[in-house]
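In the previous lecture we treated proteins in isolation. Real proteins rarely work alone, and many bind small molecules. This record shows how such a complex is specified: first the sequence, then the SMILES for S-adenosylmethionine.
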Amino acid sequence: MGENDTAPEDKAPDDAAHGGTAESGAALLGAADIRELAAALDVRPTKQLGQNFVIDPGTVRRIVRAAEVGPSDVVIEVGPGLGSLTLALLPEVARVIAVELDPVLAKALPETVEAKAPGLADRFEVVHGDAMRIAELPGPPPTALVANLPYNVAVPVVLHLLELLPSLRKGLVMVQAEVGERLAAAPGSKIYGVPSVKMAWYAEARRAGSVGRHVFWPAPNVDSALVAFTRREPPATVATRQQVFAVIDAAFAQRRKTLRAALASWAGSPAMAEAALRAADVDPTARGEMLDITAFARIAEHRMV
Ligand SMILES: C[S@@+](CC[C@H](N)C(=O)[O-])C[C@H]1O[C@@H](n2cnc3c(N)ncnc32)[C@H](O)[C@@H]1O
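The predicted 3D structure, ligand included, written as tokens:
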């Protein structure tokens, strides 16, 4: 799927539409279903929790297709909300473990699954909690992350789950368009930064399409992007992940400065920063935005204090 892909479904959904029943055994949620569910639960979507619910069955189908998940996948879904994406995932995969922070939504979801996908409810489990803080999950280890993420915490959630769950081999997340570009950016581009390099420690990320704001209720102020990722081995290094991430944070905290200046307090002094950079075969007058993850790992190895 190309960057500017506009799938046939990427049009304004009919506001009154019900999602209808799919042959797969799960009914998908349309705009009218979402409003009915929200009214029944007295849910008023909050910005604080990034609650923008997908009201377009075409969009959730598109997400599931782009995720390339199958019958052997155990999916972790973050922020299932009222269940739009959950219901599209269930017929396709072995199991969905959904982590939801809102207690009202977490409590209501099993009932929605039972009502809309009666034959598939045994594949589903909901965990009430904060996806940025969970330390363990029930059941078999997840192989894929598929989520329409709460936008304000999208990057920390993805990084936390990649660190916590080595079983996670791939993922497809819907995020704010600008965040999607950052996650998938390559060295040398203006938007390359901390999310791009930290993501590259764990996985190869790429843009997998765009989604307009009209497929959500309420509609957010920004458009969205689909980002796909595939796990890869971190660079071979004697430095720990924390040590490498400390260099990345220092380099981008003052991204307009040369690395010699930006890494001065991390190294102990500008001269020590220069020594570490030279030992790592990195030009001390370069800026962080030019370096890939392997260069950051080499620099971390050469800190002298
Ligand atoms: C963008 S909505 C997506 C809802 C649903 N998946 C959909 O596509 O309609 C984000 C969801 O994440 C939940 N959420 C927000 N912060 C969270 C966190 N830290 N951990 C888990 N869920 C969170 C919100 O309550 C909300 O249900």
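Summary for your notes: The CA atoms of residues 48 and 141 lie 29 Å apart. Residues 49-54, 78-81, 84-85, 99-102, 105, 130-132, 148, 150, 153 surround S-adenosylmethionine (CB under 6 Å).
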